[in-house]
Amino acid sequence: MQSSMNEDAVGSAYANYLRVGDFDSAMSLCRALRLTGHAAEAQDLCERWVDKVDGTTECAQLAIDMCYLGMFAECERLLGGVADAFPFGTSRHLVMSEFAIAKYHLGKYHEAHEIFRSLRDKGESANLVRLLFTNASASVWDFLQDKFLGLSDSIEGMRIGILQEGGVGDLVMYSRYVDMLLQEGASSVSIQTPQTLRGCIKEDHRIKVMGDANVEIHNCDYVTTMFSLFARYQLSPYFPHAPSSVIALPTHHALPDSLMKCMDDGTSRRKIGIVWRSASGARHEPYRSIDLCKLATLLENRSCRFFSLQVGGLTEVEKALFAQHGIVDLSPYLSSFADAAAIAQKLDLLISVDTGPAHLASTFNCPVWLLLSQACDSRWLDCQRFTPWYTSMRLFRQPKLGDWTLPLHDMNIALVSSLERA
């Protein structure tokens, strides 16, 4: 039903574009195409409007839509011509954020980071707070703006509160900066954490998981987010390379005997976990996720036994693929990310799209092969195979948005090769 509704939306947007033919109708059609997986058509439509945009605002909007479609070089070129024309405010903040994203993707780390750092410093705190907490009241905006941590603020002896920005994967990846806050002299760090991840935050008298953030933030001297700590501490793409010490399995966490029996079939077959879709609604969906059927070549390898760490229920097609390939469903054992982390340590390999379990497994140095959309998050920079974020992770990237053919081909060759070496 959802697919039908989406296609209906494309049809409606297309009919409106044929009738009106202006920039707004073109961008509405572009977004409908992107959100229903018609990446090539959306990209083509953007290209046809490059020479038709009228004025700074239209040029910037087209560039932003291109950035969402992985057209980073085109986005950078367009924004480079209009970014300085925007007055100070939330619109300029958004434009400059996209400018930085495009540059990160193009491997221009230091250019990108100079922009991003400027957007996370005191001068932009009002705009940042309004964009991050859109539903807050003006009094809350003023409170957070006054307390927002600047890049050069001294934190010696200060209590730092970290508010959630992004998903679980972002928190896990950027949690390494908590160590740096403490090394710089912060007396304590309170972290707003999703309930399902709370068991994985290290027990330390200086580190606290926020209960009610609306109450506890008043006890902090400064507030910030993990993304802003990236701006403060990540001065090059290769530092800090140490994994986070903030993420840890709960003391005495044990997997049930029924799970251990389920995972051990008494053979030497390689144990491989799979996660193929995300429900986060991140900007690069629906391209971050992959249809399970596209993993068929991998799943047919009889030297491996596959275990699903996917949560959220299965479609009838997925259930049929489980039966066909003997995939073991571990979702009944996954009540928290602590369970996922413990299971990952029992696997020989986790194959995943860019989602929380992949970050968590890599933090514990478990082997992870990550499937990346061509329009993936800018944190992955332009790294082709190996990433400085995680030493145990290997990347398999799309060269073309929405087309998993090459990364899956490369992954299948890598899997066969690794089995031959074993």
Short summary of the structure?
With 422 residues, the chain is of the alpha/beta class. Helix content is 46%, strand content 12%.
Can you walk me through this structure?
With 422 residues, this protein is of the alpha/beta class. It is built from 19 helices and 11 strands. The strands form 2 sheets. Strands 7-6-5-8-9-11-10 form a 7-stranded mixed beta sheet, sandwiched between helices. It has a 4-stranded parallel beta sheet with strand order 3-2-1-4. Helix 17 (337-344) crosses helix 18. The model has no long low-confidence stretch (mean pLDDT 93).
Question: Main traits of this protein?
Answer:
alpha/beta, 422 residues, four-stranded parallel β-sheet, seven-stranded mixed β-sheet
Report the sheet with the most strands, covering strand number, pairing sense and barrel closure: 7 strands, mixed
Given helix and strand content, the structural type is alpha/beta
Q: Largest beta sheet: what is the strand line-up? A: 7-6-5-8-9-11-10
Helical content band: 40-55%
End-to-end gap: 45 Å
Order of helices and strands: HHHHHHHHHEHHEEHEHHEHEHEHEHEEEH
The fraction of residues assigned to DSSP E strands is 5-15%
Shape: globular
Radius of gyration, in angstroms, nearest whole number = 23 Å
Sequence stretches where pLDDT stays below 50 over 5 or more residues: none
Treating each run of at least 4 consecutive H or I residues as one helix, how many helices?
19
What's the mean pLDDT score? Answer: 93
Give the total of beta strands: 11
